[in-house]
Predict the structure of Leukotriene C4 synthase.
Amino acid sequence: MRSQIDLLATVTVLGVLEQAYFALQVIYARRKYKISPPETTGHPEFERIFRAQANCSEYFPIFISLLWVAGVFFHQGVAAVCGLLYLYTRFRYFQGYAVAAQGRLGPLYASARLLWLLLGLALAGLLAHFFLPSSLAWTAALARPLQLLGAW
């Protein structure tokens, strides 16, 4: 059982650590600019860091849900790679937004594409599960070319 979800669990924990990092950056910015909770306005750099963290937190439940459904019903390895790429793009989004609002756009679009990809994988896996008699063989056949490339 564990070997069937170990990659998903690892990406999930990395995602939680990333969320904690973003929250710590808000705390540091509050201290740096002397902005006490519950205030959410002040120095422009604080506001950008605060918004970046809030935006990442808003999308995190969507990401985790799609990661697990795609990983369980389509292929764990493919979902985990998409998940790692998503976490990387969100990190770049956070970094870019902290510097300038325009810096968030490229990583934002990349992370949105990855969420759409995870949604597609999740839907394909669920459809195969419900409508194909041997859906496990179907998803394994789709993932076979990736295995041959040595992806996992």
Observations:
- The two ends are 18 Å apart (CA to CA).
- The domain at 2-149 is CATH 1.20.120.550 (Four Helix Bundle (Hemerythrin (Met), subunit A)).
- The chain has a mean pLDDT of 92.
- The helical segments are 2-33, 44-73, 76-99, 105-131, 135-148.
